[in-house]
Amino acid sequence: MKLAMIGGGGFRTPLVYSALLRDHAPGRVTDVALVDVDASRLTTMARILEEQARGVADAPHVSVHTDLAEGLAGADFVFSAIRVGGLDGRARDERIGQSHGVIGQETVGFGGISFALRTLPVVMELARTVARVAPDAWVINFTNPAGIVTEAMSGVLGDRVIGICDSPIGLARRALGALGLGGRRDAELRYAGLNHLGWVTGLRVDGRDVLPDLLARPDLIESFEEGRLFGAEWIQTLGALPNEYLHYFDYRRDVLQADQYEPSTRGRYLAHQQGAFWDRAGTSESPLAAWRLCRHEREVTYMATNRESAGMGERDEADILSGGYEDVALALMRGIAHDERARLVLNVRNRGTLRELDDDAVVEVPCLVDSAGAHPIAGAELPDHGRGLVVAVKYVERQAIEAGVHGSRAAALRALARHPLIDSVNVARALLEDATSSFHDELSHLH
């Protein structure tokens, strides 16, 4: 099989390649095409993957491409992982958000909407190119904001685009670990929501839901990252385990205050850190070692202001482990290509799964994967306290899609003004003005 990775010069590419190197089963991926607009990063990334592959006799062949159609030709699967505007764009979103007293994080609130507005025209062109050059390929979307991007691309590709996020599986893994069940790969996860806006509502092991056992023990709740982030009392009050990104909603004022005291935003920190990494890796005898060090630094500082606002201190080494999205991606590909059935939490069209939303709304729920694609499993249910928030945010996502795909400035303003983290139409209008000024070329389609 051939896998084309769009944004193949991106930082997470070695994680995906490591999963491919571990797969020796018949019908595996044998060719990987890295596609990126940055030729220099492609060259360095190819060196990293070459170093990863040393000693692996059947390692997938890697090619590099700056021409999209060339890289897509003959692809069975396409990974989309691009960042329009780069990390500098993320830093600008954060700065604009802070200047108006709102959260500017890249997938939540203003930052997520701004990111979507400049990303959607690019991913829609990608979707059309896939449909033309590789019509039988399946697109696995990692591009943020993943729910919005997946739903927009589904307008061209239908159910052949599926979104992936590692937050749900990471949360479930840590919760099971707290119960001493970390090795149970047969646990049945019940999860419902949107991307970066969902809750674990059940964890079935041997036919019994063990989530109530966890919720009854404050000491166990606060033994893992999300438990310490939200606090045992609040999680017990909710009666469900929230995705880490809900911390921006539940503790908005606390996060904003912590952001104000930070000397640098997350985007600015990553831009500096990864800029230094690319300079170092380009000339290093072991670019893989440089990548591993940079990745560890990145994970150690993940959601640092949120943790600071909760008084958590440093991350535990166990929490720094990858959530496993590369393994989910591999299971998804094998499930579709070889009818190897798997149960995975994915971003797919609702198809009646969550009764609060229409069939075409992309939701994040457990799915059954087979040769026909990913099918949401009946029974996913939002907790009562989350229904209104999900409906409100889905409206915002739809308005962002209208703005990003069709260039409606009015829809962009509606998306900002109706987002739960933005509390004034005047602030929404000012945010939009600053975004269109700062990203003049990327947002020139708005009218």
Summarize the structure.
The chain is of the alpha/beta class and 447 residues long. It contains 21 helices and 13 strands. The longest helix is centred in the first third of the chain and has 25 residues, at 109-133.
CATH architecture annotation of the domain at 2-163: 3-Layer(aba) Sandwich
- Pairing-aware structural class of the strands and helices? alpha/beta
How much beta, percentage-wise? 5-15%
The termini sit apart by: 43 Å
Which of globular, elongated, flat, extended, rod-shaped describes the shape?
globular
CATH class of the domain at 2-163: Alpha Beta
CATH fold descriptor of the domain at 2-163: Rossmann fold
Chain-averaged pLDDT: 93
Plain-language structure description:
This protein is an alpha/beta fold and 447 residues long. Among the domains are: 2-163, NAD(P)-binding Rossmann-like Domain (Rossmann fold, 3-Layer(aba) Sandwich); 168-251 and 313-320, Lactate dehydrogenase/glycoside hydrolase, family 4, C-terminal (L-2-Hydroxyisocaproate Dehydrogenase, Chain A, domain 2, Alpha-Beta Complex); 254-309. Helix content is 51%, strand content 15%. Helix 1 (13-22) crosses helix 18 (325-338) and helix 5 packs across helix 19. The longest helix is centred in the N-terminal third of the chain and has 25 residues, at 109-133. The mean pLDDT is 93.
Defining traits:
21 helices; 447 residues; single chain; globular; four-stranded antiparallel beta sheet; Rossmann fold; L-2-Hydroxyisocaproate Dehydrogenase, Chain A, domain 2; alpha/beta; EC 3.2.1.86; six-stranded parallel beta sheet
